[in-house]
Amino acid sequence: MTNGDLSRSESRQVAVAAATLGPWRTAAAVGTVVGGAALGVNVVTGNWSLDILAGPVGLGLFFFFLVGTVGGRLRRDTGDRRLQRWADAHPWESALPAAGALWVTTTLAMTLLGSSGFFGALFASLLPAGLLLVIAGVVGSVKRSRKRA
Question: How many domains does the chain have?
Answer without folding.
Answer: 1
